[in-house]
Design a protein that fits this description.
Number of strands: 7
Number of helices: 10
Structural class: alpha/beta
Radius of gyration: 17 Å
CATH class: Alpha Beta
Helix content: 40-55%
Distance between the termini: 37 Å
CATH superfamily: Vaccinia Virus protein VP39
CATH topology: Rossmann fold
Order of helices and strands: HHHEHEHEEHEHHHHEE
CATH architecture: 3-Layer(aba) Sandwich
Largest sheet: 7 strands, mixed
């Protein structure tokens, strides 16, 4: 089991980079694409906008944003160099011409100017940062007044039956499958990360505390997922 320090989390995502996409696709039965499209829609991004995808990982959410903004601009930021390498390679392999700039950077200290972006997304990143209020504050800083961020992540369901199913799924499907690829320890972090992650209501409160003017949390997939939509 890894610890939750930034260095350990960065090392974890570098190690799992080769299997991150195929394993996520298999484990969600392809549904993660639908959830990410929901986040892009709720971000309010539109043609011509300048957008940011924080904790962009292997880049699929940033690509969805880029397709939506057309002649706009998307910045994908992540601190895991191996994930960024895969993100760049995926765009090249598909021979896509997309307006994406990939930047190595920390969600807690974004190397970007204030009041710069028209919209933002984050997929499966907030749960893994070392300081959630600080990450929200950084998002608030780089967004333009009136701009919106949509944050997608795994959640602890409030329904006890769904919660029990989630625990069973993680223990009997996710970790054994990851173990098959030699990554059992890396994926065993999921359960404790969910236990630490604030509930939807707690996330709303944190977003208001750091200065967002409007906050909404949408539970999806029976509460096993959620999207926090926050407007500056």
């Amino acid at each position: 089991m890894i610890d939750s320090t930034p260095e350990s989390v960065r090392a974890l995502f570098d190690r799992i980079a080769p299997i991150y996409d195929p394993l996520n696709n298999w484990l969600s039965l392809g549904q993660h694409r639908i959830w990410k499209q929901m986040a892009v829609k709720w971000s309010g991004a539109k043609s011509g906008d300048t957008c940011i995808d924080v904790c962009c990982g292997s880049g699929d959410l940033a690509q969805m944003l880029a397709e939506r903004v057309g002649n706009g601009q998307v910045v994908g930021v992540d601190f895991a160099t191996e994930q960024l390498a895969i993100a760049r390679q995926r765009v090249q392999n598909r021979h896509l011409t997309l307006p994406i700039t990939w930047i190595e950077g920390d969600a807690l200290n974004l190397p970007l100017p204030d009041n710069h972006f028209d919209a933002a997304t984050m997929g499966y990143g907030l749960r893994n940062v070392g300081d959630i209020p600080r990450a929200l504050r950084e998002l608030q800083r780089v967004l333009k007044p009136g701009a919106t961020a949509a944050i997608l992540d795994l959640h602890r369901p409030t329904n006890p039956l769904v919660r029990n199913f989630q625990q069973w799924y993680l223990n009997t499907i996710v970790v054994p499958l990851a173990s098959h690829y030699g990554y059992s320890n890396e994926y065993a972090y999921l359960a404790p990360s969910l236990d630490r992650f604030p509930t939807g209501q707690e996330q709303r409160n944190l977003a208001l505390e750091v200065g967002f003017s409007t906050v909404t949390h949408y539970p999806i997939a029976g509460g096993t997922m959620g999207v926090l939509v926050i407007t500056k």
